[in-house]
Write a structure and sequence with these properties.
about 130 residues, about 35% helix, alpha+beta, Outer Surface Protein A, domain 3, 3-stranded antiparallel sheet
Length: about 130
């Protein structure tokens, strides 16, 4: 199987930052994934088609090994998919934007609720309205 010239975040994937990295989920097919900080950064940087080349660590803040591990894991989970559009290189501005999203969206202290408390809002409620 040949590798794609470009990868992009799968349509419908949503991300919620957490102190450990993030939770990513999609509804069809239903799946919830716990991502570490490196995978979260790689996913945020794939908001548009990106080539298979490894960006410099000075730009992304990730080593070559971290980048390869993160993108391979995201591809295996179906969170990164082949793109039909031409890839664009990751620029320092893209990396700053991703870091800003992480900085603004990550809780300052670890959440004291269990992980299921985060997943609960995304499940279907089985209670009936009494109105």
């Amino acid at each position: 199987m040949e590798s794609s010239p470009a990868l992009v975040r799968s349509p419908g994937v949503r991300v919620r930052c957490a102190h450990f990295g993030s939770l990513a989920w999609r509804t069809r097919p239903r799946g919830i994934y716990r991502l570490d900080a490196a995978a979260t950064t790689a996913l945020l940087l794939h908001d548009r088609p990106r080539g298979n080349n490894i960006p410099p660590a000075a730009v992304t803040g990730l080593t070559e090994q971290e980048w390869r591990r993160a993108t391979a894991g995201l591809r295996d989970q179906g969170l990164l998919v082949p793109a039909a559009e031409a890839p664009s290189a990751i620029t320092p501005g893209d990396a700053r934007e991703a870091r800003q999203v992480l900085r603004d969206s990550t809780p300052r202290v670890p959440v004291l609720k269990p992980l299921w408390a985060h997943i609960q809002p995304f499940t279907r409620c089985n209670q009936h309205c009494v109105h």
